[in-house]
Structures are given as C-alpha cells and as structure tokens.
Amino acid sequence: MLDEVRSESISAGEGVRRTSADVGIGQFRQILLWPIELVTPTPEPVHHDYAALLSKLGPHNPWKVIDDEFTGDPKDFQERHYNEFVTFLPPVQRFLYGSGESKVAGSINAHSPITTFRRTDITAVRVVLTPGSKPVTLNIAHVDLYFFYEIDVAILALELYSDDINLAEVQDVMFRLGRTHPAYWEPSGAAGHCPVKVEFLSGDGAVVVASDYDDREKFLAQVCTRRAARVAAHWQYLLSPLVPHHSDLPGELRYKQLEYYRMPQMALIATKGGQELTRADYVRLAFASGPGDCSELPFSQRHLEDFEERYCYDRYFGQHNEIEWPQSRYMSCGHALVVTGSADNPFFVDPKHGCLNSFRHEHFLVFLIAHFHKATLLMFSDRLTGAMSRLDVQNKNAIAAFRSASRRALQTFLRFTHRYWFHSVSNQTQAHDIFALCRRHLEIDRLFDDIRQEIQEMSEFLENEAMRKQSDTVTRLTVVTTLGLVGTTVTGFLGMNLLDWANQTASWRIQAFLIVLIPTILLTLITIAKSRVLSDMMESLSDGTATWVPKFLRTRKS
Predict the structure, then answer these.
(1) Cα distance between residue 171 and residue 198, in whole Å
(2) Contacts of 366 by beta carbon, 8 Å cutoff, 6+ apart
(3) So what's the pLDDT on residue 546?
(4) β-strands 312-313, 265-271: how paired?
(5) CA distance 434 to 105
(6) Count of CB atoms within 10 A of residue 364's CB?
(7) What's the pLDDT tens digit per position in 231-255?
(8) Out of 351, 435, 508, 539, which residue is the most buried by the measure of CB atoms under 10 Å away?
C-alpha cells in the first residue's frame, strides 16, 4: 500500500522546495525486521530444530548464539535487563526469558523458547540513495537472527544508527533501504524505490558485499522460472548460510519470504537545535513514504483527516511540561513504528534509562512480538494452502498425506496459541497501547480468526471422512454378517446330530468338514468383495424399489 503513491523523492536535478535537508538529526536509529519462513530440509514429517542446525554448521558460520544474560553472574546483571523484564506480563516473561528453575517442582530449568544468534563481521552500511547523491554511511549496532521453538519462522533484526544525517536523508533511508527486491525498473535501468547501491562494510571499511538491484535480467528470470521473487545479493549474504528456498544454492537451512517485500521497521528520530517537524513530515515518517516538501502533504487532506487519531500515540506529545516523560510522538501504520523527539532533551536520547533505551529494548520486543504473530499466521496460511492444493479425494495416498499435514498443522497451531499468542503483553500504559496500535494496523486478530476457521474446517473434513469410512466399514460388516448366516446354518445343521455321522471314520468326517468349510470361506470372501453391491441390493429390497423380485415380496414405501 505504501508504494501505491509514488514518493516525492529528491533526485538529482530536481528543484528542492523544502528545508528538511537543513533539519539536523542528533540521533537516528533504525531497526529493520525481516520475518522469513523456514522450509523443512527433508520431506519427512518431523520437526527440525533450525537453531541447533545453524549452531552446528562449523567454524565458518558467522552466526553465534548470544549468551542468556539470565544465566550469568548476577553481579553482571544490568538494571536495563530488570526494567525490560518487569515491563511485560508473566506469560510474556516466560515466552521471552523462560520460567527459570523451580526446586519445589523438581529440577526444572525451562529456558526461553527464543534462540538468538548474532554476527559481528559487518559493522556498517554505505548507501547511495538516489542517482548523483552522496553516500550515506550508517553504523550497525546489531545483526541478530531470532528462532522460535517449534515454529518454522525466523526474524532477522538489523539495527542501524547515525548522528550525522539530516531529515531528508532519514526519510529516504526509511523509504528505500529495507527492500528485498525492486518493485520495478526505471527507463534508465535504475531499480524503482530502491537505493542505487547498498554496501555492507567490515570493521576495516572493506566492502563485503554490494547490492544488485540493477541486474534486471536475474530478477526477471527468477520469477519466470521459479514463480518466486529473487532476494537481492546483499540480503542473501546477510542471512547466509541460510539460502533462499527458490534457488539453486546448496544449503540445508532454507527460507521463503512471508510478507511484503518491504521489511517492517522501527525508527527513532531526535531533532536537534529546537527544530520542529511539520504535519507533512510526521505523515511521511509514519508511513515511511520518502522525502518531499515540508509544507505539502504526500496524500490528500481527506485521506489524512483522522491521521492523528488512527496512527499517532500522543500521550506525551503537545504538552507544555515534561515531568512524566519527555515530549515525544509515537506513530505506527503497522509496517513502521516511529518515535520522534528532541535531541536536546538528555532523557530522550539516554541509552540506559531514557526513551532511546525503551525504544531499543521494551518497544523493540513489543514490535517483534506483533510481527512474529503476523509472520506465524502467514506461515500457517501458506502451509494450509499447500496442503489443500495437494489434496485429491480420489487418491488414497493424497488423502493420507493431507490428513498427516492437517494433524501437524493443528498440533503446531495449538502450541502457538498456548505458548506464543497474547492479546496484551503489558499492563504498563505505553507498552500496552503501542502493542495495541501495531496489532490493529496489522489486522492480526482478523488473520488469527481466518486461520483458526481454516484449521477447523480441515479438522471437520477429516472427521467427516473418518465417519464415512467407519460407516462404510460397518455396512460391509453388516452385509458379511447377514450372508454369513448361510454358513452358520450349514455348520449348525452338521452339529444337530440329525444324521448319524458320529460313527463314521475320522477321514470321512474331515472330508465332510472341508466340504462345508471351503464353500463357506469362498462365500465369505465373495461377500466381502461384493459387499458394497450387496449392500445396495439389500437397501433397494428394504425400501421396495427392487425390480428384480416379485411384487408380492416388495415392501411398500412409507
């Protein structure tokens, strides 16, 4: 939706009517989240511990597991970890941090179901946003990869920061940087809505990998042959040794894209020098729609009539005093969560106790949980769609595979709802309201209801199939039992002693027994084989529709 309206991007040679390029930003933080679906490396219907697979890939693996701060020396436990922990409700605490040890219930050590990996070989990103513009360098604070136990979803988190940037560059970075592939190409060959070039830099400033957005033929060929969009080279490198599933790259850990090709993002913008943003600036930041004239709205006035009500959290915005919290505005369209404030306020940019600290920790987790919920539900939707597309009611093997896939989906969905699903994550007003704002725009509840309904319909289908098979089996057994009365009558006749065969020789009696036994077995087998036809004949006889019997033997229809 954000790309339906072309941004008023600042390109080389265009006249600049705004002064936002002169608005200095004292602190800019951007966190890009990239949810991906992990693909089972083998066709067997078993759960794979992807975190364990990644940790066992050898010394050349750039990802290392982050040590849990709760398992270290309590003397090294920081206050910010405590503040982060107490922000959340107990069920969310168990999800994020585990339940710890309980000596009463025995030796129980329940770790968090989240496993976090980090790579440190990339320290900066250099971006050329538009043709002819100067490169913008952003430092990398963290590159983390989150895995969730028994859920085939992972989330890449890339945190960037800069204190040498202006507002126009901030808006353009938010608009262009987090794109896994181009939306289109300009007549000049430049990738639409994408940076001209993105370079990941190592600690010594060397270029590790560069983007390939302008390689139009590769992206076209991928969609033509694979029916899946190609992931740009620099994002592929950042996730390696994970590899795209729809590619020829070798690798046991494979992934597919789940959401829109624009990555969800968080941004904190602290203006300096007492400079204030206009309403147009706030709109552009809230929707990450790119730079433009500070006096002109990027969308129509009618479309933005309820902008403040729908997209802004202004609990601490527009106040004259700053006793409880510094003046700040929180905005979210679901895809983006943006916080604005003043760099001149020490508490707003305090990395240990202020707004910046909350943004990087508590609010980051709030945003992560919301997008984890959406990504997981989209993963379920993808799996259910795949299972339904392979269903063939005429094929017993296809029905068995569908039954197995449905059972696994139901089991995983139950684990998700009982372990990871929350309508609220905190009773603290700010965290609670921000989570509700993100969930509303992501339409998570509607998606959850849709997935639950689909799984329920699949379960009902399987239940009906089981009942149909059971009914068919009972019908067949009834037919066999009915016609088996013939054999029972014969064997009963032999045992009535009407004929004096007791004095016959043993060989004679065995022959007589076999003469009765063999036809009875044959009759039983033929009855089983023709039980469906015989059942139809018996039904037609019972309801009086059989034309092959005399009229006086037919029963009248009621």
Answers:
(1) 16
(2) 425, 426, 431, 434, 435, 438
(3) 60
(4) unpaired
(5) 36
(6) 19
(7) 999 999 999 999 999 888 888 889 9
(8) 435
**Contact assessment for residue 421 and residue 370, using Cβ atoms and an 8 Å cutoff:** no
Tokens standing for residue 506:
């043993």
In single-letter form, the type of residue at position 156 comes to L
Q: How many CA atoms lie within 13 A of 32 on its CB side?
A: 23
CA 340 to chain centre: 29
Q: Please determine, for residue 46, whether its predicted confidence score (pLDDT) is greater than 60.
A: no
Judged against a pLDDT cut of 90, whether residue 19 lies above it is answered with no
CB contact at 8 A, 291 and 7: yes
Mean of pLDDT values over 189-216: 95
pLDDT of residue 111: 76
More confident: 2 or 491:
491
Q: Are 155 and 114 in contact (CB under 8 A)?
A: no
Cis peptide upstream of residue 241 (ω within 30 degrees of 0):
yes
Of 161, 193, 162, the closest CA to residue 178 belongs to 193
pLDDT higher than 50, residue 107: no
> What's at 174, amino acid-wise?
M
Mean pLDDT of 93-109: 65
Q: In this predicted model, which residue has the larger pLDDT, 386 or 223?
A: 223
Other C-beta atoms lying within 10 Å of the C-beta of residue 239: 20
Using alpha carbons, list the distances in angstroms from residue 413 to 373, 381, 440, 537: 12, 11, 21, 46
CA distance 294 to 287: 15
122 or 506, which is more confident? 122
Position 51, amino acid: A
| Residue among 173, 145, 147, 143 at smallest CA distance from 158 | 143
Average pLDDT in the chain: 84
| pLDDT tens-place string over residues 340-356 | 999 988 889 988 888 99
**Cβ contact 372:438 at 8 Å:** no
pTM (two decimals): 0.82
**AA identity, residue 518:** I
Cα dist. 171→127, 193, 310, 407 in Å? Answer: 13, 13, 21, 46
What is the DSSP secondary structure assignment for residue 352, as one 8-state letter? T
User: Is there a contact between 398 and 388 (Cβ–Cβ < 8 Å)?
Assistant: no
pLDDT of res. 23 = 78
Instruction: List, for residues 467-503, the tens digit of each pLDDT value.
Output: 877 777 777 677 667 666 666 766 665 566 556 666 7
How far apart are alpha carbons 523 and 389 in whole angstroms?
A: 42
Does residue 546 or residue 55 have the better pLDDT?
55
**What is the residue type of 335?**
H
288: buried, middle or exposed (CB in 10 Å: 19+, 13-18, 0-12)?
A: buried
* Burial state string for 522-540 with b = 16 or more CB within 10 A and e = fewer than 16: ebeeebeeebeebbeebee
What stretches of 202-305 adopt beta strand conformation (E)? 207-210, 243-244, 254-257, 265-271
Return the number of other C-beta atoms located less than 10 Å from residue 462's C-beta. 16
